[in-house]
């Protein structure tokens, strides 16, 4: 058996694994990267990239065939950045195959043993299938297969009203499909209900049907015809069924017990430094059991690179991590929602709001539906919710504010170009300070007193 000794061994070439590999190799560490599937992982091949490409194509009225060609072209354009050739050019040794632990600090892959000072598990996640009788016996779609669908679904049933389900519902409706979303609870249940209502209303106006509070009790069918029986006795029929009910960490085939790595139902058990129960083994991204976003994996990669290469006690935080549902309108959130903030801070919480309808650029471009809501405690934002056009871009300012623990005065002091949607954030800050300045009798007395002495 061949043996490789290295500083860092990374299992998984998705967003997190690639970020660690690139950063560590360019700073002088010996790096081995192991990947059994496609380079770039889920995000490039079956997640963020194809879904956003399909949403764009659907909004641009490309038609079914052209839309899917655009998806393929988008993946192909980005793929070289994640390719074996690029990473080998950076000095990374790339091994294709399934890795399994064979000891506390070594893994084996296709007859080769890799012994490393530090090992990073970045194997991501896979679609979670709910326990519905018959579901595993019928042809179904997940995010891993829906972008390869050759024919137009007529109609498409979507089980799950989270971000993936909602984005695919709107995209396929705009591509001419009848779409029904089946959600046992509430769609986008993690988000602000007022913001969710705008998203849902928009999709309903486009023709998407919703079955909220509908629990599937049985699924049956074959290629070209699937039936979902609900708990109220009704049966929904479609040509295809997309299951978008969350994801589960990919840990089963790693033989983690041989490395003394503990797991939980959510994934690898890690501490604030993203170390597992084996201090030589780290886990990042979806497999670490936390927030399942590509940008989280990239952020966590930076945390562990500082720890592994420089010995710094870097810790991962979550309060400043944004999330976005890329429907039209977009729904973006960072930090606490209003309900979470009220539970945490009670009467000390202040909430300010700015509507798109009060923004001149929104009026000029006829994009006035939506709002920004900022939750503030002791002068600092603790959360922000935005729903409207470009919300995913604009929430970045508030992610910075939470990350740097900025005060609302920093946002109020910002000069935004006119007319832009970005002025919504400055308006929210102005709304926070207006009663403190304009309705404060002490301020008025001070102004009058100063005026008596100003030449």
Automatic annotation (TrEMBL):
Top-rank taxon: Bacteria
Ordered alphabetically, the record's keywords are:
Disulfide bond, FAD, Flavoprotein, NADP, Oxidoreductase, Redox-active center
What single Pfam family name could you report for this chain, choosing any that match?
Pyr_redox_2
Required co-factors: FAD
User: Any idea where the FAD/NAD(P)-binding domain is?
Assistant: 7-301
User: InterPro entries per the record?
Assistant: FAD/NAD-bd_sf, FAD/NAD-binding_dom, FAD/NAD-linked_Rdtase_dimer_sf, Pyr_nuc-diS_OxRdtase, Pyr_nucl-diS_OxRdtase_dimer, Pyr_OxRdtase_I_AS
- Pyridine nucleotide-disulphide oxidoreductase dimerisation domain: which residues? 321-428
- Entry similarity comment: Belongs to the class-I pyridine nucleotide-disulfide oxidoreductase family.
The record, for PANTHER family, names:
MERCURIC REDUCTASE (PTHR43014)
Q: What is this protein called?
A: Dihydrolipoamide dehydrogenase
């Amino acid at each position: 058996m061949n043996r490789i000794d290295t500083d860092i061994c990374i299992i998984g070439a998705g967003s997190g694994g690639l970020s660690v590999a690139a950063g560590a190799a360019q700073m002088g560490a010996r790096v081995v990267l192991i990947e059994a599937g496609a380079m770039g992982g889920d995000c490039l091949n079956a997640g963020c990239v194809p879904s956003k490409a399909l949403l764009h194509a659907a909004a641009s009225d490309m038609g079914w065939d052209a839309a899917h060609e655009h998806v393929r072209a988008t993946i192909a354009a980005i793929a070289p950045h994640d390719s074996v050739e690029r990473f080998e050019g950076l000095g990374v040794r790339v091994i294709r195959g399934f890795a399994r632990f064979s000891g506390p600090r070594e893994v084996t892959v296709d007859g080769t043993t890799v012994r490393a000072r530090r090992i990073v598990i970045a194997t991501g996640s896979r679609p979670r299938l709910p326990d519905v009788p018959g579901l595993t016996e019928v042809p179904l779609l997940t995010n891993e297969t829906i972008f390869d669908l050759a024919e137009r679904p007529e109609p498409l049933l979507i089980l799950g009203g989270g971000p993936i389900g909602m984005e695919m519902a709107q995209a396929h409706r705009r591509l001419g499909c009848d779409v029904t979303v089946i959600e046992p609870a509430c769609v986008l249940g993690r988000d602000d209900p007022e913001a969710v209502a705008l998203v849902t209303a928009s999709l309903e106006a486009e023709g998407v049907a919703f079955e909220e509070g509908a629990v599937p009790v049985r699924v049956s069918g074959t290629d070209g015809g699937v039936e979902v029986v609900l708990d109220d006795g009704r049966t929904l029929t479609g040509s295809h069924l997309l299951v978008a009910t969350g994801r589960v960490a990919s840990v089963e085939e790693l033989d983690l017990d041989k490395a003394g790595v503990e797991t939980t139902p959510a994934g690898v058990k890690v501490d604030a430094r993203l170390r597992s129960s084996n201090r030589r083994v780290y886990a990042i991204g979806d497999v670490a059991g936390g927030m399942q976003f590509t940008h989280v994996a990239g952020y966590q990669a930076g945390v562990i690179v500082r720890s592994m290469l420089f010995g710094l006690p870097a810790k991962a935080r979550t309060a400043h991590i944004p999330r976005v549902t890329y429907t039209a309108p977009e729904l973006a959130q960072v930090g606490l929602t209003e309900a979470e903030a009220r539970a945490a801070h009670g009467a000390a919480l202040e909430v300010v709001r700015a509507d798109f309808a009060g923004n001149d650029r929104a009026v000029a471009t006829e994009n006035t539906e939506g709002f920004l809501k900022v939750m503030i405690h002791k002068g600092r934002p603790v959360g922000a919710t935005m729903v409207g056009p470009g919300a995913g871009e604009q929430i970045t300012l508030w992610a910075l504010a939470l990350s740097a623990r900025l005060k609302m005065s920093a946002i109020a002091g910002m000069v935004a170009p006119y007319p832009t949607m970005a002025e919504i954030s400055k308006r929210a800050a102005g709304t926070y300070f207006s009663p403190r300045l304009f309705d404060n009798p002490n301020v008025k007395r001070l102004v009058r007193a100063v005026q008596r002495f100003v030449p």
